[in-house]
Amino acid sequence: MTQGVIVKALSGFYTVRTEEGTLVCKARGRFRLDGTSPLVGDRVLCSRDAEGGGRIDRVLERRNFFIRPAVANVDALVFVAANANPVTDPFLIDRVSVIACDAGCELIVCVNKTDLDAGTELLETYRKAGFPVVSASAETGEGVEELRRLLRGKICAFTGNSGVGKSSLLNALEPDLLLRTDAVSEKLGRGKHTTRHVELFSLGEDSYVADTPGFASFEIEMMKLIPKERLQEDFIDFAPYLGRCRFPDCSHRREPDCALRAAAEAGEIAPSRYRSYLRLYEMSAGYRDWELKQNPG
Ligand code: GDP
Ligand code: ZN
Hints:
Elements: E1 2-10, E2 13-18, E3 21-26, H1 29-33, E4 43-48, E5 54-59, E6 65-66, E7 71-72, E8 76-82, H2 90-102, E9 106-112, H3 120-129, E10 133-135, H4 144-151, E11 155-159, H5 166-173, H6 177-188, E12 199-202, E13 208-211, H7 228-231, H8 259-265, H9 271-285, H10 289-293
Parallel strand pairs: 3-5, 8-9, 8-11, 9-10, 11-13
Antiparallel strand pairs: 1-2, 1-4, 2-3, 4-5, 6-7, 12-13
Helix pairs in contact: 2-9
């Protein structure tokens, strides 16, 4: 038996990359029975059968998994932002930062198009909040090597508002990538299968990027809902202040003697991060219980 990573899943066949090369495996019935269909990103034990095909013997424990797109073991979400053409709303970054934290994966904030605008405030806000940040330009190549270094050995996924340069950055990291993803899109039909088909593309040095046809990648709008009580824990920069409010069940909105609000007013926490918390709290509070139950922790 060898260990490998599922890099592609299509019509019941799984392509597994192992140290001894690539093996195409057929899913076995029992995975479906215990409710764990293998996902792209899963680390598996597999073996070669007499005919040269493969078989997945076991799916190893997952670090996390996402449903749309269906991918397991994401180590890092890369949020690509820009402060010019288009300007990224920090709320989007905060929303993804909460999803990342909730799933136990790292968030890397990459401010692209720095040849047009340095994006100093964005960089400072997220550096101060404790995230790895990269100042980049797909145009000049700035920051590309740093990004590559941050992604080494990881499975990552790129997200960010349209036009910020995700495809351009991925192409700067791995020039073959666009050709390969375009070929996939063409074969599957752009748009039609975007939520179903995921593939891990190698970025070299055992780094992988999860992608869907046409670089749709992680759709921010489709991201899961997080219960309002848990939100505060998913803002990593709030940690030093939690438990220091007058009320133990403080929601940090209008309660008196709220340590978190005080920290935001004093600028110890970026006011934009606090505002995003309030906005996400209101959004979560508006969800019904059944909606939240569809997205258990
Ligand atoms: P995506 O929608 O996030 O994948 O964005 P694209 O990679 O398609 O880029 C959108 C547009 O921005 C394209 O016209 C790119 O050439 C341009 N672009 C991407 N990165 C940069 C950059 O760093 N600087 C400048 N000036 N333009 C860029
Ligand atoms: Zn509070």
